[in-house]
Amino acid sequence: MFSEKLKNFCGIYRACQKGTAAIEFALLAIPFLIAIFGIMEAARIMYTNNSAQYALEEVSRQISLNEDMTAEAIEALAKEKLSDMKVNQSDWDITTNIVTNGGADFIEIIARARMSSLMHDLIPEKLDLFTIEATVKTALTD
Fold it and tell me: Is residue 100 scored above 70 in pLDDT?
């Protein structure tokens, strides 16, 4: 008798399919949207990284043509080239180093920027900071 009542009770709700599509959509929509926005954010970060690398390579070509540039002039030129990025110009930290390798001196330009992410709260802080480096392989003259 009890099993028959339970069978009737479950049968009523098993036959009713109203709202199942909405519940399934609600369960799958959030992970789907996180995956879509994550892919878009990864693509944006990769694009910015590659564009900034190219901009610093252009700066290094300018330095190889004009070796007597000061560190301030190099930084100003780098900020000018990096101004087209989707990162604020004031967020770029640009440093220049003189590196000696095998008896030859080189200029190394390092640009660091903190990405303002669309999903900033979901990305770990270590992944939110990226570094772009370019090295000029021109011997320095005294």
Answer: yes
